[in-house]
Structures are given as structure tokens and as C-alpha cells.
Design goal:
The protein is of the alpha/beta class. The protein has eight helices and twelve strands. The structure holds S-adenosylmethionine (SAM).
Length: 277
């Protein structure tokens, strides 16, 4: 039997993925957004928020390892981590792989995302929500960082994008100087901050914008890439610190951590330069 097709916009009307859908596993409207979890033929399960792709089971490990493990493998003594967004549980899963981590604060604005993903995608968090080191805060991360005072060794921003042609997005305040000034105050001297920065080939201006914002706030900044097919290929990530930087070769700690995507080649590739424009 033919399965119905679902069109997932990658860049508004300009570029989309057409996937055939076996089933809609979960649907709900929350006060913040519409949540859909589909089972698809090619990508496995896919989470969409307001119709925008958040990840698929086929390649989420490439996204989550790039986002979390590339900075965390550079911080062998990291104890405390802050996650901005990340309600699906993929980021906390990666953080919990590290025995040095003692405490993770995850700040997700929409409890509906956490519930929906626990129900329809339990394999994604791999038990991380039950890990005693993880504390979930259901609130706007913009307000949380304003009153928080813990020093964090790693801050991971895994929020939704601010979409072109859409005003008043949930995460708009998270892409501001004010938000990142608060993050800087919350970082240890050797700490790192990382954020996903959209697709490098089709919208390089997203990374450029984040790096220029970071340049106004943080003493040190940089970028790297990961291969995430469902996001249209080359995904950008931006990092910032008070002085720490990332090794261009795979840190030794990698041999102690279970990894599916990263190896010596893909870690080095993350820091190689790309030019499509
Ligand atoms: N991997 C994804 C991507 O590439 O865009 C991000 C996934 S994660 C599901 C994004 C989460 O950020 C969503 O669950 C959303 O509710 C959350 N979020 C958006 N704005 C937020 C805010 N202001 N404070 C806290 N969480 C927020």
C-alpha cells in the first residue's frame, strides 16, 4: 500500500523534504506550539514543531553528538551542564554518558514536548529523564538564566530556530545579546557554550549572525559542522568561551564514551573549512 506524502519545509517555501508517512504517532496542540511525531519510511520517527523538523531517528545521533560530544569531549572534568530547550531528551542522553557530569539543569518552556517525546519516542532519551543527575525546569530559558547563579562547565542551547518570515517565535529572545550576556555570567572560567546554528549550505547567514552576536559578548568563539541529512546536509554549530577552545583532533576521552557518529575522521571533518557560497 502506498503511504501518504508529507512535505517538511527546510527553508520555508524554497526547499523541502517529501517523506512518505506510515503513521502519525502523536499529535497535540499546546499553548506554545503544535507537536507532531510521525513514523516515516525513510527517516524513521520524526518530530515536527509547528511543521518544522526537529530531528529524525535516522540521523539524530549525528546532530546530538555534534552538539554535545564535540564540546564535552574537550572538557574531561565537566561537572555541571545547562541545557536550553532540548525537551526531546537527546541532549541530556548525551550528557549522561559522561561519568564526570554531576548535575544537569534542562530548561524547556513546553512540557508538552517532554510528554509527547517520552510517550512516542522513549528510545531517544534512553532513560536520561530518570537519571538522578538531571533536573528538568519547565520555564522560559530567558527568565531562567537571568536569575540562575550556578557556574556551568557546559551550556548547550538546543532551542527551536527563529524561522524566516515568522514573527514572535518562542525562541526569539534566546538569540539576543541580553540572553548570552546572562549565559556568560553563568559559565566557569574554563567552560564552553554551544548552540546549533542551522544549515551551513542553504542559510550560512544563520551561523554568521550567531558568530557576530557571540563576538560582541564572549572573548573566544568558533564554529564547526556535522552531517545531518534530514536538516539538508551540513549543519552548523557555534561555540563560545571565556578562553577555552576546542581541539581540532579527537580528544582521548572519546575512547571512554559510547559514540555512534563521531570518530577521528568525522571529528576532524567538523573543523575543516567549507565553501559553497
Ligand atoms: N534539534 C532541534 C533543532 O534543530 O531545532 C531542537 C530540538 S528541541 C525539541 C527545541 C526545544 O526548544 C523545543 O522543545 C522548544 O519548546 C524549546 N524552546 C523554544 N524556545 C524556548 C525558550 N524560550 N525556553 C526554553 N525552551 C524553549
Amino acid at each position: 500500500m502506498d503511504h501518504p506524502e508529507l512535505r517538511i519545509p527546510i527553508r520555508g517555501d524554497k526547499f523541502s523534504l517529501n517523506v512518505s508517512v506510515k503513521a502519525l504517532l502523536h499529535h497535540r496542540d499546546t499553548e506554545f506550539q503544535t507537536i507532531d511525531i510521525y513514523d516515516t519510511d525513510t527517516f524513521g520517527k520524526a518530530l515536527l514543531l509547528d511543521g518544522h523538523i526537529q530531528f529524525t531517528s535516522l540521523d539524530e545521533h549525528a546532530y546530538h553528538e555534534s552538539l554535545v560530544q564535540i564540546p564535552l569531549l574537550n572538557l574531561p572534568n565537566a561537572k555541571r551542564a545547562l541545557v536550553i530547550g532540548g525537551g526531546d531528551g537527546g541532549v541530556i542522553r548525551e550528557l549522561c554518558k559522561h561519568p564526570s557530569i554531576e548535575r544537569v539543569d534542562m530548561v524547556e518552556i513546553d512540557p508538552g514536548v517532554i510528554e509527547a517525546c517520552k510517550l512516542a519516542l522513549p528510545e531517544l532519551n534512553a532513560g536520561a529523564f530518570e537519571d538522578s543527575r538531571v533536573k528538568v525546569h519547565v520555564e522560559d530559558a530567558f527568565a531562567f538564566v537571568k536569575r540562575a547563579f550556578e557556574p556551568y562547565d557546559l551550556i548547550v542551547a538546543d532551542s527551536t530556530d527563529v524561522y524566516e518570515d515568522e514573527e514572535g517565535g518562542l525562541s526569539e529572545a534566546l538569540f539576543t545579546d541580553e540572553f548570552y550576556r546572562d549565559c556568560l555570567r553563568l559559565m566557569t572560567e574554563d567552560g564552553l557554550l554551544v548552540t546549533q546554528a542551522d544549515n551551513l549550505v542553504f542559510c550560512p547567514y544563520s551561523l554568521e549572525g550567531i558568530l557576530s552576536l557571540f563576538g560582541r559578548i564572549f572573548p573566544k568563539t568558533g564554529a564547526y559542522q556535522g552531517l545531518v541529512p534530514s536538516f539538508g546536509g551540513f549543519s552548523g554549530f557555534a561555540w563560545a568561551s571565556k578562553g577555552a577552545s576546542l581541539s581540532p583532533t579527537l580528544p582521548a576521552l572519546a575512547s571512554d564514551i559510547p559514540l555512534r557518529y563521531l570518530n577521528e575522521t568525522l571529528y576532524s571533518f567538523a573543523f575543516s573549512s567549507l565553501s559553497f557560497n
